[in-house]
Design goal:
The protein has one domain: 3-Layer(aba) Sandwich (Rossmann fold), CATH 3.40.50. Helices cover 44% and strands 19% of the residues. The chain contains six helices and five strands. Strands 3-2-1-4-5 form a five-stranded parallel sheet, sandwiched between helices.
């Protein structure tokens, strides 16, 4: 008689089951989404699209005008993704889901990857010049060393 051991999650053993892409509406994040969709299709994996809603700036919390809320951005992204998915559904046939998290982009993507049990993470290259000094989200994800990370230009 052999002992029955409970199945433990193990990343990357049978090919990716979940490919996660960070999307924020920037051109590079949309290219990353398209790249991740191709990977998900090729691997028959779930494409998990994640938008991290930034924490409201201090000025906005004190009543300064804000041009569009992060919820509106998330809704716009979902609509854009649905429209794109509908256009290519017969060609791509990719299973996908969209999730939002609040907070810092890096921490939100890490939390999302852990909750989704992502096998791979795809992000767009940072379009902010300030990241040369602080470090981009992509670089921080690579340095974390928890998942294979693809950075799409």
């Amino acid at each position: 008689m052999s002992e029955h051991q409970p199945h433990r999650f193990e990343r990357g053993t049978d090919g990716p089951k979940v490919i996660m892409a960070g999307v924020d509406g920037s051109e590079s994040s949309l290219r990353a989404t398209a790249y991740a969709a191709g990977l998900a299709r090729w691997q028959n994996a779930l494409l998990a699209l994640v938008y991290v809603q930034p924490v409201m700036a201090a000025g906005a919390s004190l009543g300064a005008p804000v041009s569009g809320t992060t919820e509106e951005i998330a809704e716009g992204l979902v609509e854009e993704i649905r429209t794109s998915a509908e256009r290519v559904k017969d060609l791509w046939q990719v299973r996908w889901e969209f999730r939002t998290f609040k907070g810092d982009a890096y921490a939100g993507l890490v939390r999302a990857a852990e909750e989704l049990k992502a096998d791979a993470v795809v992000v767009g290259v940072s379009e902010s010049a300030g990241h040369r000094f602080v470090g981009s989200v992509a670089v921080r994800l690579v340095k974390a060393g928890r998942w294979p990370v693809t950075v799409v230009p």
